Amino acid sequence: MPVTLTSACLPHTPTDRPPAPPTPETLTYSLTLPADPRTPAIVRATLRTVLLAHGLVDMTDAAVQVASELAACACRFSTSPEVYVRLRYREDALRVVLYDAHPRHQHPRLAAACDARRRSTLRLPACVVRSCGGDWGFGAAHEPGGGTRTWAVLPRSGARTYLAGGHTKE
Q1: Distance CA 167, CA 130 (A)
Q2: Is 63 exposed, middle or buried (0-12, 13-18, 19+ CB in 10 A)?
Q3: At residue 10, what are phi and psi to the nearest 5 degrees?
């Protein structure tokens, strides 16, 4: 006797249900990209697409500016052929994190000189982040590969102000 299976008997697969539309709270992406001069453009295009898909278009101007500059800095300092980018939206703020393989220097003078050079490279994103009422920084990456972690947190309300032209020149 043949057995007839109904859909109620079969396990559900992801294609059985329509996918839930992306929301701000589901924004979480990680990318490994080449440490290459073209990478900031890839980060800009990716971030525009991600923010649009997750309903965060009002953050685009500030976020793209900051992420692009962090990517350029990571590519400039990286001692490996790759950089790692992480994007997350939590607690009404976008978190952008870049990891590069540049090790933290052990000698205090070398560390201070390298930090000053990196800080100088990051002046523009620092101004944007401050305009948005956010926070940023860099330091040793505690992940297995080591290197440097550079990050920025952009509150959505501050990014809206930046979009509206409420940012100040510093």
Answers
A1: 9
A2: buried
A3: -90, 145
Angle, alpha carbons 156-157-158 (nearest 5°): 90
Q: Which residue has the tokens 């309903």?
A: 55
| CA 53, 124, 83, 88 torsion-angle sign | negative
- What's the CA gap between 88 and 122, in Å, rounded? 20
pTM (2 d.p.)? 0.84
106-130 pLDDT, tens digit each: 899 998 999 999 999 999 999 999 9
Q: What is the pLDDT of residue 55?
A: 97
Residue 21 burial by Cβ neighbours in a 10 Å radius (0-12, 13-18, 19+): exposed
Q: Give tens-digit pLDDT for 6-31.
A: 445 555 566 667 778 899 999 999 99
Amino acid at position 125, single letter: P
Helix (H, G, I), strand (E, B) or coil at 118: helix
How far, in Å, CA of 62 to CA of 75, rounded?
Answer: 20
